[in-house]
Specification:
There is one protein chain. By secondary structure, the protein is an alpha+beta fold. Strands 3, 7, 8, 9, 10, 11, 12, 21 and 24 form a 9-stranded mixed β-sheet that branches. The protein has a 5-stranded mixed β-sheet with strand order 16-14-15-17-20. Strands 28-27-29-30-31 form a 5-stranded mixed β-sheet, with helices on both faces. The longest helix has 21 residues. The structure holds adenosine-5'-triphosphate (ATP) and magnesium ion. The site of adenosine-5'-triphosphate has 18 residues, from strand 8, strand 21, strand 24 and helix 12.
Length: 570
């Protein structure tokens, strides 16, 4: 590509709302522009990188027997009613009507569509297993679109779905996809970690996330040298972890705590540490109120609570529900003497080890001291409900957990029967008996990968593309385009490299060398060949890699340059 023919609108300054280094660089290097909040246009340079990522993924999906399809983005409500997700998905799902007033949504993910397709087409065990995947636009009306294309509303995803005759086959195949995802991360040049994750709105029995390590990542992950890794949403805390209470049980005592509603306020007043408190939270789980307990210095993990309750919708209860359940306004709830005698109490393991604890008295302006489990209240269930915290130990080996941040680029789910059951996706087994298909689904954010790469690979001058994702492998920079010999040699190298299948950009602009170097650094081309009349006198050129310093550049014979580049690129 000749730069004079290439649409590359670079910017000296990033737009003010670019809130992260990768977004700034994508704007400045002319990869993207913004149309509306979370909605972007991809310009030629950005699209070239996107296509390279796409191709790597396509190759790895091909190696594990994937079949590429192309699914619609406008999806009829009827399919979403079958799985119940029309009601459950929430506001991220963009719902709209056609001219006949029928309900549709823009696909945020395609489990319903693919399960429908497969149940119509697959009859027999002979046709299984089957893996279908697509590249396509997803629409999710994210509450807070940010970080450029990293958390967009419209984004480009590869989503894959596999169908199996039984659990064993599904699990074996899951491992194959897992390895393919690792391969993709490696080919993209990522420093990454694969971690156990919560299953969330997609559902299913277990899942893993592929996290690119970066301080700007939205996710917090824990890991251990023993190989354990998990998203903090999912990271397990073992029963009996952390210290236990000491002493003997004392009689319950009511404390007047006027207008004190938080652990901090009451703690200060009663001179007690948050560790002595039971945080009592009232939730609404599928329209049932529930009381959840966790020790005062810990935070409740809603993902864990949701799976412990096995409910589809979980939210903190409103004040009216709280009053009805506890008999007191917000801030005075506790596990003892609840107004609603039938309300379910579910406690975190941390509540188990507490002796003489403090919590609300279910009475306005009062708290209770010396609360003891089993004597004063009996939870229906005690389980792991809290978020991991710095200082927690690995649930597998007991060593200290490491905390770091990551960008989730991929997510694999073992779905089991979740969709095949509700949508009746069945096949006939060897004995002619109807069986449900076992499913897996596997997403990877193609557009997010582009941004994540830049987060990991840049300097103050711009992007540093790893070779496999680079929009061009090499840029040829003639110092003086007006000089006939410089022009001739530059074009000759450009032609020869192009013929060898190298992605090469010729900076044929009549611009100052400084501007050309700056742009080449900004857009991050891995190799730069500089053609100057000074070196040409000795039949030589200058070659520099983007990640090398100026003084590390090498002077090379003109007739060796093509082989040199080919050996580096291929
Ligand atoms: P997140 O927790 O970041 O919202 P998710 O769990 O909702 O992600 P999945 O439904 O598993 O994401 O989607 C698969 C992949 O699609 C993610 O791993 C991510 O790379 C990408 N992705 C998800 N949401 C967005 C978005 N809003 N913008 C860009 N890419 C996204
Ligand atoms: Mg999401």
């Amino acid at each position: 590509m000749r730069l004079t023919e290439f649409f590359l609108p670079t910017l000296r300054e990033a737009p003010a709302d670019a809130d992260i280094i990768s977004a700034k660089m994508m704007f400045r290097s002319g990869m993207i522009r913004k149309l509306a909040s979370g909605i972007y246009e991809w310009l030629p340079l950005g699209l070239k990188v996107l296509k390279k990522v796409e191709q790597i993924i396509r190759e790895e999906m091909g190696k594990i027997g994937g079949n590429e399809v192309w699914l619609p983005i406008l999806l009829p409500r009827s399919l979403w009613d079958e799985t119940g997700r029309w009601d459950v998905y929430g506001k991220e799902l963009c719902r709209l009507k056609d001219r006949k007033d029928s309900d549709f949504c823009l696909g945020p993910t395609h489990e319903e569509v693919i399960t429908d397709l497969v149940r119509r087409e697959i009859r027999s065990y002979r046709e299984l297993p089957l893996m279908l995947y697509q590249f396509g636009i997803k629409f999710r009306d994210e509450i807070r679109p940010r970080f450029g294309v990293m958390r967009a509303r419209e984004f480009y995803m590869k989503d894959a779905y596999s169908f199996h005759p039984d659990e064993k086959d599904a699990e074996q195949y899951y491992q194959k996809v897992f390895n393919a995802y690792k391969k993709i991360c490696e080919r993209c040049g990522f420093k990454y970690r694969e971690v156990e994750a919560a299953t969330g709105a997609i559902g299913g029995s277990f899942s893993h996330e592929f996290m690119v390590l970066a301080d700007t990542g939205e996710e917090e992950i824990v890991s251990c040298e023993c190989g354990y890794g998990a998203n903090t949403e999912k990271a397990e805390v073992k029963q009996g972890a952390g210290e236990r209470g000491q002493g003997t049980e004392k009689p319950l005592e009511e404390k007047h705590t006027p207008n004190m509603r938080t652990v901090e306020e009451v703690g200060k007043f009663l001179k007690a540490s948050p560790k002595n408190f039971i945080k009592t939270l009232i939730y609404q789980a599928d329209n049932e109120p529930v009381v959840a307990l966790v020790r005062g210095d810990y935070e409740l993990n809603e993902h864990k609570l949701q799976s412990a309750l096995n409910c589809s919708i979980l939210a903190l209860a409103d004040e009216k529900t709280i009053e009805k359940a506890t008999g007191a306004p917000l801030g005075f709830a506790g596990p003892v003497k609840l107004k609603d005698k039938n309300i379910k109490i579910i406690a975190d393991y941390s509540a188990e080890g507490m002796i003489n604890a403090i919590s609300g008295a279910n009475k306005k302006d009062y708290h209770l001291a010396n609360i003891n489990i089993n004597r004063d209240y009996k939870p229906a269930k005690v389980t792991d409900l809290r978020k991991v915290k710095r200082g927690d130990k690995c649930p597998r080996c007991g060593k200290d957990l490491n905390f770091s941040r990551g960008i989730e680029v991929g997510h694999t789910f073992k779905l089991g029967l979740k969709y095949s059951k509700s949508m009746k996706a069945t096949y006939l087994d060897k004995g002619g008996k109807e069986q449900l298909m076992v499913m897996g689904c596997y997403g990877i954010g193609v557009s997010r990968i582009v941004a994540a790469t830049i987060e990991q690979s840049h300097d103050e001058n711009g992007v540093i593309w790893p070779l496999p994702l680079a929009p061009f492998h090499v840029v040829v920079i003639p110092i003086n385009w007006q000089d006939e010999q410089t022009k001739k040699v530059s074009e000759q190298i450009y032609d020869e490299l192009s013929k060898k299948g190298i992605d090469v950009l010729l900076d044929d602009r009549d611009e100052r060398a400084g501007i050309k170097f700056k742009d080449a650094d900004l857009i991050g081309i891995p190799y730069r060949i500089t053609v100057s009349d000074k070196n040409l006198k000795d039949n030589k050129l200058e070659l520099k890699a983007r990640w090398e310093k100026k003084e590390e550049s090498r002077i090379i014979d003109i007739d060796k340059i093509v082989d040199e580049i080919c050996s580096k690129v291929k």
